[in-house]
Amino acid sequence: MSSGPVRVALLGVLLLIVTGVAFSLLDRPIEQPIAFNHRLHVEDLGSDCTDCHLYAMTGVRATIPNVEVCADCHAEAQTDSEEEALLVAYIASGEPIPWRKLYWVPDHVYFSHRRHTAIGGIECETCHGPMGEASEPVPRPFVKVTMNGCMECHEQTGTSNDCLLCHK
Amino acid sequence: MTRWGMVIDLDRCTGCGSCMAACHQENNLAAVGPEESSRDRAFHWLRVLPEVSGSGAEVKVRYVPQPCVQCDDPPCVRVCPVHATYLGEEGIVAQIYSRCIGCRYCMAACPYNAKVFNWYEPEWPGDLKQGTNPDVSLRPKGVVEKCTFCHHRVVKAREEARAAGREIRDGDVTPACAESCPARAIEFGDLEDPTSRVSELTRSPRAFRLHADLGTRPKVYYLAERD
């Protein structure tokens, strides 16, 4: 039977390990099925965010493009890139690409892209960071979405912070 | 600023219950069976209450649809220890579910029994979850819920109005209950606008409010039946 202080120390170490594991599970990098190159599309080819995220100016959700959107340009391979070959295979199979979301809000929050972009005149980069400059998938969001962040921006822009405007 | 209100014409209400059904569907309310109902866990944000008077051949029944009456001086707000319920800028008494701790003080304080406690996990059998309204949250078990005059429709209508380059105005919003009423017994609109239909109806000699003597100043008005 171990003595009191040893037991406390062991419990402390156990707690540290559990906390560490929990944090590492929560903060796991996000991996995408295809290494999409935002920089190539935005900076080099001059695409606009809304060319692929079709509803960023007009809808509640900006939407992540799926094969139908990609097929507009990639029904046949444009390059000999291995990543594009993956995309062409998805398009040929008609299977949805299992993209993983980087930015999301909880179920009790109503966030409309349109009222921030088209109506509020906010640039995509304000909330999404320099996504257009990323040449490979970003493992974590550039900007952490927090209620404090939303409220600070609302305060600076003179927008109401009435809970009902965003909470549902 | 807009101040939302409702007028319910008791002469028109037939007690059909379509407002209750529409409210359930619109606001993702749990459907409760007879067993849970018998344990006083029935779950409605809007109730159609029958009032029976007289007897025998003289019996008379009237139906009173009762949502949250959205008091201007809401007793529920005063007792909430965590500011989960408050009077919003446009007169809607809000319930912020992510703040609510489920203490139910507000339920005890409400003289209209307008608030309900959610005894249920947000679970739907099979694919029925796909039919829930994405504009209304699926509340967790253990929070207090209430009618919000379908405020998500207000939010959407304001967005539509701003996209069209104007502010929201009377007539832009219709809550689910009013929309579904086949007898058009429920009117909804801006009480601040003296020319609105609801303002006009509140000036009717038939207009009254529930428990007006309590000083809660509800924004739901009723029109009494004509003789």
Walk me through this protein's architecture:
The complex is a heterodimer of chains A (168) and B (227). Chain A has 168 residues and is mainly alpha-helical. Chain A has a domain of 102 residues. Chain A is 46% helix and 0% strand. Chain A has nine helices and no strands. In chain A, α4 crosses α5. Chain B is α+β, with helices and mostly antiparallel strands. Chain B has one domain: Alpha-Beta Plaits (2-Layer Sandwich), CATH 3.30.70.20. Chain B has a four-stranded mixed sheet. In chain B, strands 2-3 form a two-stranded antiparallel sheet. Chain B has a two-stranded antiparallel sheet with strand order 4-5. In chain B, a hairpin with a 5-residue loop joins β4 and β5. The model of chain B has no long low-confidence stretch (mean pLDDT 95). The chains are: A mainly alpha (168), B alpha+beta (227). The interface between A and B is medium-sized, with 16 and 19 residues.
Main attributes of the structure:
heterodimer, A: 168 residues, mainly alpha, flat, B: 227 residues, alpha+beta, Alpha-Beta Plaits, four-stranded mixed sheet, two-stranded antiparallel ribbon, 7 helices, 10 strands, 21% helix, globular
Largest chain-chain contact? A-B, 16 and 19 residues
Shape of chain A: flat
The general outline of chain B is globular
From the 3D structure, determine the CATH topology of chain B: Alpha-Beta Plaits
Q: What is the CATH-assigned architecture of chain B?
A: 2-Layer Sandwich
Strand content of chain A: under 5%
User: Gyration radius of chain A, to the nearest Å?
Assistant: 21 Å
What do the pLDDT scores of chain B average to?
95
Q: Helix coverage percent of residues of chain B?
A: 10-25%
Question: Would you report the number of β strands of chain A?
Answer: 0
Poorly predicted regions of chain B are: none
* Number of helical segments with 4 or more residues of chain B: 7
How many distinct domains of chain B? 1
Give the beta-strand count of chain B. 10
Pick out the low-confidence regions of chain A: none
Number of helices of chain A: 9
Helix content of chain A: 40-55%
Rg result of chain B? 18 Å
Largest pleated sheet of chain B: 4 strands, mixed
